[in-house]
């Protein structure tokens, strides 16, 4: 069986994030810097995704001044410390094929240079010269030193509490890289 390396096409890939709080939710996008997936016989065997934390955008806050202020707060040490940590990453270490044709990926998620195991289900679609993966990763932000307004660390937050879990919904497109072709 042939092993094929697929390089992520950042411009054709998307990650949507959702963070919830007592009074509602915020959502936006964050870009993928680079990465790859390795398939053997059409099955995922490994991979790596590097997320560009400097690209985080907020979509639900339409007032420009408020949006800029919120983006600055997400970039700060209260959240992602993007000046110190401009990327986050997920490295696939183990893959299980599921009965429904999807895959369960397990690996190391690194945010703010803190690494913890993470696992989630993905669907895989094959195209003429590439693949698409889609799935959802739910992350407990407190494991990565993102404690701002967490009920685990602060008392009496009332309706200012921010829930610990946030979601990344992703759709990743990757193109096959064949020998003789340059990799980015």
Query: How many DSSP H or I helices?
Result: 1
Name of the top-level CATH class: Mainly Beta
Structural class, judged by helices and strands?
mainly beta
Number of strands: 9
Mean pLDDT: 85
Which overall shape is indicated by the principal axes computed on the Cα atoms?
A: elongated
Q: Which oligomeric state applies?
A: single chain
Alpha-carbon distance between the two ends: 25 Å
Backbone CA Rg: 18 Å
The CATH homologous superfamily is termed Lipid/polyisoprenoid-binding, YceI-like
As for the number of domains, it is: 1
Structure commentary:
By secondary structure, this protein is mainly β. The protein has one domain (3-176): Lipocalin. Helix content is 7%, strand content 58%. It contains one helix and nine strands, in the order ββββαβββββ. The protein has one helix at 64-75; strands at 3-8, 14-21, 24-40, 43-58, 87-97, 103-111, 114-126, 130-140, 162-177. Strands 1, 2, 3, 4, 5, 6, 7, 8 and 9 form a nine-stranded antiparallel sheet that branches. The chain is elongated, with a radius of gyration of 18 Å. The model is unreliable at 149-155, 157-161 and 180-184 (pLDDT under 50).
